[in-house]
Amino acid sequence: MNEVYINRIGKFLPNDPISNDEMEDYLGKINDRESKGRRIVLRNNGIETRYYALTKQGKPTHTNVELTANAIRNLLDDEFSGDQIELISCGTSSPDYLMPSHAVMVHGELKNGQSEVNSASGNCCAGMNALKFGYLSVKSGNTSNAVCTGSERMSSWMLADHFNKEVENLKELEEQPIISFNKDFLRWMLSDGAGAFLLQNKPKGKLPLKIEWIEGYSYAHELEVCMYAGSEKQADGSLKSFSDYPSEEWLNQSIFAVKQDTKLLDKYILDKGVESTKHALAKHDITPDDVDYILPHVSSHYFVDGLYERLVKAGLEFTREKWFLNLKTVGNVGAGSVYLMLEELVNSGKLKKGQHIYLCVPESARFTYSYAYLTVC
Prior knowledge:
The protein contains 12 helices and 15 strands. It has helices at 23-27, 38-45, 64-73, 102-110, 126-140, 161-172, 181-187, 247-252, 262-283, 304-313, 327-330, 337-346; strands spanning 5-12, 18-19, 49-50, 87-92, 116-120, 145-153, 192-200, 209-218, 227-228, 231-233, 239-241, 259-260, 293-296, 356-363, 368-376. Helix 4 (102-110) links the parallel strand 4 (87-92) and strand 5 (116-120).
């Protein structure tokens, strides 16, 4: 089996950073009213700026495919060109199309020559699943390199226009013309962007990162759905697909809106994160003392102190100077967040040979967790 190294990291963030006060200029106001939940959500999540692939008129400036392809292009130069890519493995929770898959569309955009492609669907763990596919391909010798990506373009899903029909329907029914908090909540949480890793079977470049292992855990057998889109949650916790609704209900109920059960999120996301972390570290005989930097993907700074405290209670104290996050300035880019965190850490000048980095990615959709352990070479 080959060793696998992250030799290059690229990113692409669209347009200029957007402040909290500018968000509704881009996303619009539902029913021409300011959101009552916006300030509460933003106060808790601690995000100060984020990026949207939109103009102030709500017009798209980039597709998810273009964001991803641009991040990959930022890996390439005369020493490693697009026609040398043997595998493109892409993860996202916001593909531009139901079909074809995201990865084949990225391949088509790049026009880099023959490549194997893989698309990882899901939510935040989709980027890690794409990474694991590339890691296993290089490790097994199936390919000598792989380009892995995590990306999101959620802003176009959050535009006010997508919710106005539901509000109009509520007015006709003489009900309160306000969309539910589980839909409004996520309008102030999610951001756009893409990151890309070049994986190779030999270390190259100034500061290659050896992937020691990648682990994943799902709790779908225990817990019901927490975050979903293209469906509605039923009283028994099951999901009813958009394809089983009359098409007029797609607009009347904002079926395609991204929704989150915040009560389930608060109840389980940290505890299952600690449980799965214990499993991953014990499997590989690793302790927090073996970690120099922990990169936790969190959707909100609201969870940071709670996660730290629960880890300490479980006997897993990653001291606070080891924590590296960029949520405040980049926002929550879902499947792309861990790529963007690692890119920023690598370019910070803080890393030294022999140090170890622990990547932690939770996914609230049905409570899935992914972890990776890296060595700086």
